[in-house]
Design brief:
By secondary structure, this protein is mostly helical. It has one domain. Strand 1 and strand 2 form a beta hairpin. Helix 1 runs antiparallel to helix 6, helix 3 packs antiparallel against helix 4 and helix 4 packs across helix 5. Pfam families: DUF4112 (PF13430).
């Protein structure tokens, strides 16, 4: 299958959106929390979301013509992520901390970058109210450390 650069970059951007939604809605230092971590505590919904988001990532990998090795790595991450949801409490806690969708998306993105170059992220948000604008366009003003404190 001959994959165009444009289609591969669309897969890269879709993988970026899936990993943010699944594992990076809220960043806490090096950790992140997304729908996958929150839904890990809702029996049934956790497995449906995990399999659905994983299926979308695999679909994008196939559309982008990812290598067999990349597909294998993605599959291992996604199966491990989905399998944890079946173990009550301990498995749910592990699923909250294990960022399988992020790791699978990163594997896909590296594969795409190796073959087609890095994709530009045209829209950094999801379209429902947060994270949709770049910092310089969002009106956020950076203040020096301690400038907000009353003297």
């Amino acid at each position: 299958m001959d994959v165009t650069r444009e289609r591969a970059h669309r897969a890269w951007r879709n993988a970026e959106r899936i990993k943010r939604l699944s594992d990076n809605l809220i960043k806490i230092g090096p950790w992140g929390l997304g729908l996958d971590g929150v839904l890990a505590w809702v029996p049934g919904a956790n497995l449906m979301y995990s399999v659905g988001a994983g299926g979308l990532l695999v679909f994008e990998a196939l559309q982008a013509g990812a290598s067999a090795y990349t597909l294998l790595r993605m599959g291992v991450y996604l199966v491990a992520n989905s399998a944890m949801t079946e173990v009550p409490i301990v498995g749910w806690a592990m699923d909250t901390l294990f960022r399988g969708h992020l790791m699978a998306a990163n594997a896909l993105q590296k594969d795409i970058e190796k073959r087609h170059g890095k994709a530009e992220m045209a829209d950094t948000g999801f379209g429902f109210g947060f994270g949709g604008r770049r910092r310089e366009a969002s009106g956020v003003v950076e203040l020096p450390e301690g400038a907000w404190r009353a003297k």
